[in-house]
Amino acid sequence: MPVGSASWSFTEDDFGAITQSLQRFLHDSNARCALLVDRTGQLVATVGEQPKFDPTTFATLTAADFSANDQLAKLIGENDFNSLFHQGEKESMYLADVARRVILVVLFDNRTTLGLVRLKMKEVVVELSKLFDAVFSRGASGAAKPGLLAGADDEIDKLFQ
Amino acid sequence: MSMINYASREINCKIVYYGPGLGGKTTNLEHVYGKVTPDTRGKLISLATETERTLFFDFLPVDLGSIRGFKTRFHLYTVPGQVYYNASRKLILKGVDGIVFVGDSQMERMEANQEAMQNLYDNMAEYGYDLTKMPFIIQYNKRDLPNAAPIRDLQAAMNPGWEVTDPAKQRVTPDPYHSGENLVEQVDGAWIERAPYFEAVAVTGEGVFDTLKAVSKLVLKSLA
């Protein structure tokens, strides 16, 4: 894959499938909100209650949090930590790796329990991993729809005048 | 690693400002933050120590307009410049689409500049990225200081050029930003290419947007 080319892209169908799967998970686990963030810190999807914070910032910090913990794992002789749990007084979050490329973040409060969230999360991670494996295998063979920006040089130049 | 989201019609790209400690990376982002209209940028996040030295990174998302109906969103990151923080510095490079190296023009910082540049090449190589094949801009900051080294010396130290082996690229390519200079040319019989460079005074904003525009344009063109 050439450096700089779009490494992955996803369609509205992918988005629909991801959303459906996460909505089911939120219903079963009674969690408030689920966010999907890619490992470089880009927000992929938000499902459930719309968060009151800035989701872009949240996504960036999530990716940094996960990367830093990956390195900590290596230092103690583990390959990675495939899930992280941050406990607050009222709000808590649970983070899990999906297909080594995306992070699922779940926000929940005292309307549910860590045990239930963790249990349901295992199931949805398997589901999402399959979905993302398909997205990434497609991305690796052809990247984005060919020519999204092909011939757009003039338009790009105009953007910076 | 740019991400194209067809559902929300967005192209997301990641640009990292790299360079020696106290060179002006954070100042670049602060200037962009202060100048662009609030509806085209997000929050400026700084993970810094109590003395305002970058500990992990600074982050600023900006929208630069639409192309073919897709919003172009650029995520600007800085890394901690201090040698000590290499582990966290390397993490930020993951999935980068374009690099701005912010060099410190002061003569006494020459060694720190070169060390940071070598560190950039090393860290990129560890991810399997080839800096010479991706959008890469060098900014010589602090041009207003009396002890600023001449551009020629800075170029020789930080941007001596890399060899061009691809015959298709072995042709004189003028530097669009400096008339009379070339990005690709023959030196002593060998074809070499240099990264485009800009002069800047980040505290006053001089050269900050020229640098950002140049790197974003290269990133978008690399997707075309």
What does this entry look like structurally?
The complex is a heterodimer of chains A (161) and B (224). With 161 residues, chain A is α+β, with helices and mostly antiparallel strands. Chain A has one domain: Beta-Lactamase (2-Layer Sandwich), CATH 3.30.450.30. Helix content of chain A is 47%, strand content 20%. Chain A has four helices and six strands; from the N terminus they run E-H-E-E-H-E-E-E-H-H. A five-stranded antiparallel β-sheet of chain A has the order 3-2-6-5-4, with helices on both faces. The radius of gyration of chain A is 17 Å and the shape is globular. The N terminus of chain A is likely disordered. Chain B contains five helices and twelve strands. In chain B, a hairpin with a 7-residue loop joins strand 9 and strand 10. Chain B is of the alpha/beta class and 224 residues long. The two termini of chain B are 14 Å apart. In chain B, the strands form two sheets. In chain B, strands 1, 2, 3, 4, 5, 6, 7 and 12 form an eight-stranded mixed β-sheet that branches. A four-stranded antiparallel β-sheet of chain B has the order 8-11-10-9, with no helix packed on it. Chain B has two domains: 186 residues, 3-Layer(aba) Sandwich (Rossmann fold); 34 residues, no CATH class. The model of chain B has no long low-confidence stretch (mean pLDDT 94). Helix content of chain B is 26%, strand content 31%. Chains A and B meet through strand 1, helix 1, helix 2 and helix 4 of A and strand 1, strand 2, strand 4, strand 5 and helix 2 of B.
User: CATH-wise, what's the superfamily of chain A?
Assistant: Dynein light chain 2a, cytoplasmic
Describe the global form of chain B.
globular
Strand content of chain B: 25-35%
CATH class of the largest domain in chain B: Alpha Beta
Query: Biggest β-sheet of chain B, characterized?
Result: 8 strands, mixed
CATH homologous superfamily designation of the largest domain in chain B = P-loop containing nucleotide triphosphate hydrolases
Oligomerization category of the chains in this entry: heterodimer
Number of domains in the coordinates of chain B?
2
CATH fold label of chain A: Beta-Lactamase
User: Order of SSEs of chain A, N→C?
Assistant: EHEEHEEEHH
In angstroms, what is the radius of gyration of chain B? Answer: 17 Å
CATH architecture of the largest domain in chain B: 3-Layer(aba) Sandwich
Uncertain stretches of chain A? 1-5
Structural class of chain A: alpha+beta
The level 1 CATH classification of chain A is Alpha Beta
CATH topology term of the largest domain in chain B: Rossmann fold
Q: What is the general shape of chain A?
A: globular
